[in-house]
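quick one, 218 residues, struct below
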Amino acid sequence: MKKLESSLKNMALALTGFSVVAGGLLGWVNDVTAGPIAEANAKTLSDAIAVVVPGFDNNPAEAPETVDVNGVSYTVYKATKGGEFIGAAVQSTSNGFGGPLTVLVGFDADGNIIDYSLLSHAETPGLGSKAADWFKKGAKGDITGKNPGETPLTVSKDGGQIDAITASTITSRAFLLAVNNAYAAYKNQHVDGASGATQQATPKVEVPSDSINVETNN
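---
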């Protein structure tokens, strides 16, 4: 019995020691990789901003603004050239078919869409994942040049003018919702150069209730 108790104590001590060493190693690895990961993420964001709202000579990512619209927070990166406001990139998230879908949308000074970058998503490969390119300039669902303030962006299935991704209507609705909400955040923070008055945000566009219907693949 004493031998068994001794063996159990030794095992407990060994496991405790292993846990301490493993925890220390994980902490060390985290400290070592935290810097490079942060730098990589910062570069990815800067590159994305340069794509969606090009031509600036400031550093939009250096002093982002947080805007609350309908109880949701959005990050706005203002772009200027020669001290003059030329537009902004807005980060917005909505729930797609597979989970959160985050997009960075670039608007010019008039609120027209310049370009966008799909930052992250959990959509079906080959279907919903096509959102990364489907709505780009010249593509079937092209949204560039459009102004959500004039007409909220919706898919043709819902009476809108945007072609949804084939077999991925839910993802398309979620994507356009994120874009519409990004515009609302943009106008809420954008100050009119003539009057100095802050523009009012457009109402949040909700995903139609029938978007919960099960589709072929997405």
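The helical segments are 2-52, 131-134, 169-189.
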